[in-house]
Fold this protein.
Amino acid sequence: MGLNYKQQLEVIQGLFIPPDTAIRLDCPFCNGKNTLSVDTMHNNINWYCFHASCSAKGKYQGEKDMTYVNSTFKKKEENLNTEFYVPDSFKILDSSDKARQYIHKNNCWEAWAWGRADIKYDVKQDRVVFMIRHEQKAHEFVGAVGRALSSATYPKWYMYGNKDVPFKCGLHEHNEAVIVEDCASACAVSNILTGVAILGTSLKQSHKQSLKSYDKLYIALDRDATTKAFDIANELRSEGFKNVEIKALKDDLKYFNTEEIKEMFYG
Ligand SMILES: [Zn+2]
């Protein structure tokens, strides 16, 4: 992708990985599934993508102590439980044709039109933005997830504000939920059952908390993430979730309309 070291570093910093952490995640440079390894151990930031053709490989040496890593990441941590202020650059969806097209193509239109999802357009980052609602106070937002609308924008998915609350889309009366890869898929299923997007990460404790109210959980990650789906299923079962089922997919749920999804789950 031809990003130089400095640009790569900027993207890696934008992931807001806390100090002393080693994680695997989807590569924002080549979109490889779970191919990017980042660690912030020992006062360094190292990143490495296992895709041979991907140039995302680098290392940032901290400035003698943890000050650098702390100053980069602490700010975010402090924000975790505070209010999320919706940036001025978030405009109504209608202000971008590309954003409208995205939600049409990815079966989010219905969820948006019926108010199950709040979707905006970030004019500054050129992203279609899925707002994350407060779990109890539905009119408050705790964060947002932005999908890049151009291939020149990194990373492909960007998280604003709180990263501990998953993006959820559904109806109050749903007693079944499905764990999906991204926000668009969560919207696509939302008339039938509640979609919960985990966004390329593993399942966090806070995510599990918000799954407790459902009688049944499906896990529907894409085919490349089968191992991850089994890991998540095992993890949930070991923590007392009784009704967990892995749903094999032909394709991402965002490529199916409501009728097809109904057929897929309850046909
Ligand atoms: Zn890569």
Notes: The longest strand covers residues 141-148. The two ends are 43 Å apart (CA to CA). Residues 75-80 have pLDDT under 50 and may be disordered. The pocket of zinc ion is lined by residues 27, 29-30, 32, 35-36, 49, 51, 54, 56 (CB under 6 Å).
